[in-house]
Structure formats: C-alpha cells, structure tokens
C-alpha cells in the first residue's frame, strides 16, 4: 500500500511541477545486482533488478528570499518488499538574509571529511536498504537556523521527529539469519519517535584548516540489536533506540597535494561512554605523464572502543582503510575509487570498488562491487559473508 501511495504522490508532484515550478530536475535509475554466492538463508533471493526515480522541484517566490525544495525518492525492488519504499529526502521552506538563514521541513544534512566512515554525521537516519555503505540517508524533519559571521558559522538544529533505520526484509540480502522486527522498535524515551532532539555545530576555516565542532542530544540513529527467543514462533531481533549525548570534531588540513583528515567522537549513552576516531590522508599525483589523469592515494585508521553489549555495534573497531582514487578528467567525467578495509587483528578484508562514467548528455553509468573475506564468528560482518555483489546502475538525469 505504501508503494502505491508513493507512486500517487510522485504523479501529483510531477503534475504540479509542470504547472507551477521554476525548476524541475532529478533522475530515473535502473539497477542490477549480481550475487555470485548462495545466501545463508534459503528464503533470501539472489540476483535481481530494481527501479528508482527521484524528482526534485525547486520553487522561488518571485525572486524573494523565500524558496521551497521538494525531493521525493521512490524505489521498486524485484525481490525485497522492504526495499520497495519511498521517502521525502527533502521537503522544506528556506528563508535567507545577508548573514543568516532559517529553514523548516525535511532536510538532508551531511557532516564529515573522512572516506571510510563518517562518525560525526548524526543528523539523518541511514537508509540501509539502499546501500550497505550507509551513505544514503532518510530525510529528517527539523527547524534549522544558520548564522554566518567572519568568526565562523553557527548552526542550530531542532529535530522534530525520529526516523527508524530501514533494514532488508525476509527475501533481501545484507541481513542477519534471524529476521529483524521492523515494526515494533523499543525506545528509551517515553516519547518514542516523537522525542525532540537538539544539535549545534560550529564550523570555520583558519589558515589551511577547515574544522567543525558539533554536539548532539537526542535519540541515537544507531539501534542496538537484542535477540528475542520467541516461544510462539521464529526468533527475531528487537531494535532498541537509546538516548545519547555525542560531541564530535572533524578537521581537514589542505596543503599542496595533501589532504589530512580526522573525525573523532565521544558518546555517552546507557550510563557509559565510548570514544571513536577515523584519521588519515589523501595524496594526489596530478596530471600523470601529461595525460590529465589524477591518481590519489588514501589511507585511514579506524578505531572504536565501544562495548558491543552496551552500545550499538560497530564492525570497524581496529581497522585500516587503504585505497586509490582515479580521476581521468575527460569529457565523460570518468572516475574510479577502489579500496579495502582491513581488520589487522582478525585478518578480515572488505574490498570495494566504485566507478562512474557519463554517457552522452543525460546518462551516467555506475559500477560498484563489494566483498567480505575472512570474517570471523562474532564479527558483525560475519552475517554478510555470502553477500558479495556486483552492481550496475544506469541513471538518466533530466
């Protein structure tokens, strides 16, 4: 039913945009995923396709400082009912002045500088059924105030509703062998999903340094997983969303061909505190042999000291990320990012590759692959050890 509702909303948006909008853009996508290995659970499906569309409508009120932005995302998946979903990625009103702006509605806010993971990025919920990487986010309802000054930029957030993380269904991949109960999460707050969260962030540039300092108070976007032994049927995993306080710091130093990056957090929840950080560098060799090709070398260290019983689990507690970025700087904007996260304590290796190339004026072809090798029992990624995949996307932008 929710998918039919999403399709209906989409049609209304497109019809309205044709009449009233100043600017309508977006993309349509065909996605194919190939899984070479059989799943752990016989109910899971393998290779399949999905379709997605994301129209974006921008409207400005006659050159005034008022504007509206509406971005709707809708996907149909061949196998996984939970992956067939829609979401308001953005739907907000914005008013801007010379040195401040205010907005209200659904927004996507990104914080972070590192490549392998984004510890400080806590505003939006992860749309996990979209991509295992965690880069895709759900729209977050909020009121956002930004004040811009020569001493830096101050951002205030009043987050007016909680979004639950999406997870694969019975037939989907990237799930535990025990199914997750997506319908009945538990909240530490008595207000549950209606709890009001707050966040503040200060950003500035000093010399070669770009940095941000943030603090968040509210419901954690990362759920804890509690296995439930169900005497009346199949065991399941209960999702628990705890309250937390998190302070974060992200820094990027740009000097010549070097980019030095750091993200660190300290989080207090359930009466305990943990620390985590990601830090490293990217060095770029520009215009190799006068070909126009740039080659970047990346390396990052991932550390997390959380107790997996008390806190939401993080699979990357003592890991290294190494990779390379190739930018061909050609007319087709061809790019390749290849790398691997290595568990130097348990010998696990998690390689990935992302490549993209523009075709003609309106099409982009993306290729993505991920794999999980040498995972050990007790490791969170052990459940995904047979979910290696190769993904092809064809996107049409309009």
Write structural notes for this entry.
The structure is a single chain. The protein is mainly beta. It has a single domain, classed as Porin. It is built from one helix and 21 strands. The strands form two sheets. The chain has an 18-stranded antiparallel beta barrel. It has a three-stranded mixed β-sheet with strand order 8-12-11, with no helix packed on it. 28% of the residues are buried.
Sheet of most strands: 18 strands, antiparallel, barrel
Helix coverage percent: under 10%
Rg, rounded, reads 22 Å
The CATH homologous superfamily is named Porin
H and E order? HEEEEEEEEEEEEEEEEEEEEE
Shape: globular
Structural class category: mainly beta
Report the count of strand segments. 21
Number of domains: 1
Overall residue-averaged pLDDT value: 94
Please give the count of helices: 1
Using brief descriptors, characterize the structure shown.
single chain; 398 residues; mainly beta; Porin; 18-stranded antiparallel beta barrel; 1 helix; globular
Which helices and strands occur, and which strands form pairs?
Elements lengths: L1 H19 L2 E12 L13 E13 L5 E12 L7 E12 L3 E8 L32 E10 L2 E8 L26 E2 L9 E10 L2 E11 L4 E5 L7 E6 L1 E13 L2 E12 L2 E14 L8 E11 L13 E10 L7 E9 L5 E11 L3 E8 L18 E9 L1
Parallel strand pairs: 8-12
Antiparallel strand pairs: 1-2, 1-21, 2-3, 3-4, 4-5, 5-6, 6-7, 7-9, 9-10, 10-13, 11-12, 13-14, 14-15, 15-16, 16-17, 17-18, 18-19, 19-20, 20-21
